[in-house]
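Subject: Predicted fold for Microtubule-associated protein 1A, 342 residues

User T.R. writes:
Posting the sequence so we have a shared reference for the thread.
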Amino acid sequence: MGKEEKEDSGFGFKDKAKAEETLRLLEEHDPNYRRLTVRGLLGRAKRVLSMTKAEEKIKNIKEAMEVFENWLAELEKNKEKKTEKKEKEETREKKGDKEKDSSPDVEMEDKTKKEDKKDLPPDTVPGLGFKDKATAESTLKELEGRDPDYQKLAVKGLIGRAKRVLTCTRDETKISNIKEALSLFDKFLDDFDTMHLSKQNNPYISLGIMRTCVAKADGLLTEQQKSFIEAYSSVNGEYKRLRTVAEKEGGKTWDIVRNIALKELKEKYADVKLFDEKDEPTKEHLEMLLWAYSPEQARVKKTIQETKEESESDSKSEEESNSRKRRSSARDEESPSKKKKE
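User M.O. replies:
I've generated the structure tokens; pasting them so everyone works from the same file.
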């Protein structure tokens, strides 16, 4: 037995029987551990295949891989069913709540919210697919530069869909093309984990905190940052929607533009202080905050308050309140003079 197939835990991919035994042994572990272990074994099996010439060994390993791939496809299918069931239950609950409170005001508010959502750009990148190798390459190219966590999520979603298509397809050419696409996606995921790309993710701070930082910036804002803030505000702080909102100058979407800018700033300010003695963000920290990012998100949430955008109704009510105060003050000033005349 090759060194890479040995496992103290009893897990392996030597042949179909070993794969089935591995799945039985994994039953006592939690679902996430099972899934990660099977994915790891598949990755190792592929590497062994690339170095093996013995036909019998290749055949056995491929049979083991098929067992693991079918198990993962079934796991994905069950996960989708659970999600679907949960969504149906939530829909029923919401429907019940609406029946309880179907006042005109509530209905009007719901309608307005729906209309607002319709006006917003989509939050998923268009043009991704798994039809064949060329489509997979184009997909990975389209995902380049985007948030690493989204890249991984999108590729895993495509793998799940591709495997479901394979189970109901008999066309040999189509099957072969999809499998070529899948091998590219599997390699992407293996490289993603090996290179720890998740660590390069740049989580967003809220729009409210960023507004406060803009007020503190005092001339630091570049034209590009102003455009980014405008874009972030236009999607109501729903950062996922920036994946489909393009910068006017370069044509890249704002999620990619932001990551390029932050990569440079993170390298430039790797060792600088982020807060001063008064717990205020430093100039260098503000430069990153103006891109809706901070290396110390938890501390930012504690020390920087959110600034809410003033709506028209808020502005009107404030004006009315000030007007009432002015009228009241005028009456108070008039009364002593009237008393003197009397």
